[in-house]
Amino acid sequence: MARVFSGMQPTGVLHIGNYLGALKHFIPYQEKDECFFCVVDLHALTIPGDPEVLRRKSIELAALYIAAGVDPNKATLFLQSNNSAHAEAAWLMQCVAKFGELGRMTQFKDKGQDSESVTTGLFTYPVLMAVDILLYKTDEVPVGEDQKQHLELARDLAERFNRQYKEIFTIPEPRIPDTGARIMGLDNPEKKMSKSASTPANYVTLLEDEKSILKKFKRAVTDSDTEIRFDPEQKAGISNLLSIMSVVTGRSIPILVKEYQGKGYGHLKVDTAEAVIETLRPIQQRYHQLMQSGEIEDILAQGAVKAREATHETLGKMKDAMGLVSF
Ligand code: TYM
């Protein structure tokens, strides 16, 4: 039985990129492995926002995890801030991580251009992510492609800690899906679909209504050619539609390419929209039921207890190995 950990930020809106690149792939693990799925609310603080909104989004994200198939009887679902081991271990690991290696994180370089306005939390964010994973002695981390560099840092920090202090941490393996690991923006297929995009035409949210989904796919930017071919370099828009269609239907890209050959882009757009609508419909229904039932709070309270139990010993060992005395 492997240990599996993954997390998602309760900022902005969960979009189909988050679902197809990550969340959907969490579900099968819970049948055979010991899973911890986390709403990483501490990470959300790195870009300051309205506290009321964060409170609401954290609960909504937990409900979306369950609506998408996470079963709280099989996996532990919790809020990161409810297990103080994360914040504590992050400090300890910040004293192992090097300034230079954090400065090379591309996500920081993209978001943190203006050093006078970005928080230091945004800079040290990947260290917190590393301990999220390491504290649970995680073997496998299902994530989308944009988290690959952060996973490499987590592995480096684990190895360094093990060498420098004591062999405590398991070296985690990223699990990045072959298809759907980088869903691109519908308005600009050269850039990944993102919660922080400047226009909602970029993404489809998990809670979006059917009419709007259809409209966004119909308007998805493609190219002026007519050939259906999977070629992310030359035909980013069409390749993105094929990837989305492939992950939601479970059919392979070569089969889809054959099927849509000579049919024109319009067909592919509408069929992809419909396949996405079918996938999201049951998730949306479950989400609304859950939000009305008020069950989420209890589930998160139980998850917090299990998360704290799971990390208590590792945090203690970490402190001890570093020379901290505990009374
Ligand atoms: P976040 O909240 O930005 O994204 C959640 C998950 O969605 C994936 N993802 C995508 N996959 C495909 N196409 C896209 N366009 C797309 N956009 C996002 C992400 O790769 C991610 O798997 N730092 C993490 C949260 C985190 C975490 C962790 C993850 C904190 N601690 C420990 C794993 C383990 C983040 O900001 O993800």
UniProtKB/TrEMBL annotation:
Enzyme Commission number(s) from the entry: 6.1.1.2
Key words of the record: Aminoacyl-tRNA synthetase, ATP-binding, Cytoplasm, Ligase, Nucleotide-binding, Protein biosynthesis
Gene3D superfamilies reported in the protein's UniProt record: HUPs (3.40.50.620), Tyrosyl-Transfer RNA Synthetase (1.10.240.10)
Pfam family, one: tRNA-synt_1b
The keyword Protein biosynthesis belongs to this UniProt entry's keyword annotation: yes
Catalytic activity: tRNA(Trp) + L-tryptophan + ATP = L-tryptophyl-tRNA(Trp) + AMP + diphosphate + H(+)
One GO CC annotation: cytosol
Top-level taxon of origin: Bacteria
Motif 'HIGH' region mapped to chain: 10-18
GO biological process per UniProt: tryptophanyl-tRNA aminoacylation
UniProt-annotated location(s): Cytoplasm
Gene Ontology terms, MF aspect: ATP binding; tryptophan-tRNA ligase activity
PANTHER family: TRYPTOPHAN--TRNA LIGASE, MITOCHONDRIAL (PTHR43766)
Protein role: Catalyzes the attachment of tryptophan to tRNA(Trp).
Subunit structure, as described in the record: Homodimer.
Family recorded in the similarity comment: Belongs to the class-I aminoacyl-tRNA synthetase family.
Name of the protein in question: Tryptophan--tRNA ligase
Species whose genome carries this gene: Marininema mesophilum
